[in-house]
Task: structure prediction
Amino acid sequence: MGFLEVINVVKRFGANEVLRGISLSVEEHQVVCLIGPSGCGKSTLLRCINGLEEIQGGEIRLHGDRISGPGVDLNALRREVGIVFQSFNLFPHMTVLQNITLAPTRVLRMPEGEAQEKAMALLRRIGLEHKAQAYPDQLSGGQQQRVAIARALAMEPMLLLLDEITSALDPELVSEVLNLLRELAEEGMTMVLATHEMGFAREVAHKVCFLYGGVVHEEGPPEEIFKDPRSERTQQFLRSIIEAGRL
Amino acid sequence: MRPGFRKETRRLSNIPRDGLGFAGGSLLLVALLFGATLWVMGRVKQTMAANGFQALWADVLLVGVTLAPLALLWPSARSLGQARLARRALGQGDLIAARVASAEAHTWAWFTLGYAGAWVIFLLLVLFFIANNVAVGRTFFQLELIADSFGMILRAFWVNVVIFFFAGLLSLAWGLVIAVAKLLPGRPAQPIRFLATFYTDAFLSLPSIIVIYLVGFGLPLTGIGLFRNMPLEALAVLALTLTYGAYMAEVYRAGLESIHPSQWAAARSLGLSYGQTLRFVIIPQAVRRIVPPLLNNFIGMQKDTALVNVVGVIDAFNQARIIASNDFNLSAVTTVAILFILITIPQTRLVDQLVERDRARMRRG
Result:
């Protein structure tokens, strides 16, 4: 039994079936990368794990506990599972510091002073302590995304979901975000990433899953998937990535 | 080179007009305008004489106004000068210089035209004012009466301000409640949503004067203790709050719905509840966006405070009407009109400024 178990999950938007009985298993302290063409369901799967989308079939288990379906305390679940979005989604009317302390003070009822201390420690760690009083639109994309990660980390989640978090960044800003992820991986943070950064997936992931047609089409350790993919579809996908000069 | 979308290169070669006719026309217009002003001011002087009014300052003012249109000689002369330059440049075949001078000539001629048009309107207003031996002036602007009644009107206007202030604050709060109720998600909230929708539909379609009438006269008639002992002003506040709460609710709703769903996702994914997300993330952003339309509603409500006279509240308009029927003259009502204009203009400018600031922020990205 894995730390996170996705079992035959089905997700439909109206008549459009995005996830068609997808199964996935993630061990604790593992980094799992989801790759695949756009529209294959990577983002949807992450949103389902976090309870942002309801699922129509199958189930999701975290640490042996069922976290999908009726009766689940979603607010409690989301305290344990953090998610970072492609478009950062920082709160534009709050300073960087307020963005990070909002959830700890309001959800965990942490005293303001303690929350701020922790937030400053996180900001120091991502090298942005001098931006604590800045507003999101005064930061670069890479800085915003690092703050978004810090905001998720402030809740000390057991599991971190990252939804194509470098896709909206200018190329020269991608590395600062990836370096942070690298550190988190080294510290043993359990992470599931939907990503187009194949080089990064190859280097950091313990397992790579190629999603196609709403299921995990092929999965395995990165060397295997990238060097010796078995399925025709996976080969085709990787060929087009190489042609675009992204691998 | 491969055949593609490249256009053949051609020289731009439109020949500009010198604008001499236009400039000359503007000069002629100034002369006509001066003549017209002379005639109108003559009429004013006649009227003054007929009423036995004689004052040095008035004569100086009349002469000044008569001479004012001559100031337009300056732009029209400039236009003429530039037009002549343009003609000379054309004669020498210097197209670029001709274009520059001709553009200048046209600009100054239009300048003359614009100011002349405004001046014509001013002259018409003066004629209207003195028509029928200053009947218009006497009816609306009898200075003596305005001065005599000003204190009373101002005191009564304070009632408008108080009603407006309380109804404004209350409808702001009440509108937010309604808007949130209208947007509550899920099946259990369906009846609440229905009620809130019905409420806004009803009060958006009811003329506020009818609501004021029903609330101001009807509620005390019911004999319910609370309403029987309420001062009329408080009932007026209640009526305006009910009406404008619906307007405000619509504005709030537009604001709340304009916040991108990703903000909801971000807040909820951090474990914030529905209410916390609304309170800390969505409402603060929404309100910032809708300040201009909210202020517009404020101004609309401010004007509607004049309607409370239908239930007998002695507000500025009611007071002015009493004075008007006693003296058979509307000057006191003019005072009320001016008071409303005076308190509203700063607010409209503020709205403009806020809209402009918002636009600037959008442009910045």
About this structure: Chain A touches chain B at residues 47, 50, 52, 74-76, 78-79, 82-83, 85, 87, 89-93, 102-103, 106-107, 137, 151-152, 155 (CB under 8 Å). The domain at 4-88+159-230+237-242 of chain A is CATH 3.40.50.300 (Rossmann fold). Chain A has a mean pLDDT of 91. The first strand of chain A starts at residue 4 and ends at 13.
